[in-house]
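hi! just following up on the protien thing from before. the input was this:
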Amino acid sequence: MSPPQQRDRQQRDRDPAGRARNARPRDELGRPLDRRAAGEPTVPDDLGLAPADALDQAQQLLDAGRPFHAHEVLEAAWRAAPPGERDLWQGLAQIAVGLTHARRGNGRGAVALLRRGAQGVAGYARACPHAVDAAAVASAATELAARIAGDGLAAVTESQLRLKLRG
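and the predicted 3d structure came back as:
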């Protein structure tokens, strides 16, 4: 490892177990800011919400145009979910990341994550755990990915970046 890489590694934020964490402040789209900046409120790493509460909070964040923060809530739910629901929560989190990429102007990343998330969510279309309208979410994410892939981010409206998680 070169000296600059060693220096970067030593300066990285780590949790007590040594896993990399980034405690830097973030903007509304989750981009790291200078360590001295105020930044946006973040979701705690140890967030523990009931599934209905996680969906409510994630929806509020999506509606407010904060998909990065919705992703953090959904990711916490994914980590806590029973094995039979993990693909659903992972898919929802990936869709939120896709929306984040779209808001950041990264069409290619948006398309990839929206499609990947839609695939994960689509497998729950019949079960609809926690009243998630999995079929509608997967369809909306797939359609949004197709629009971005075909027409670019300029063709996407603000309302299309605010997907509904439940019917």
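The two ends are 51 Å apart (CA to CA).
The CA atoms of residues 98 and 112 lie 7 Å apart.
cheers
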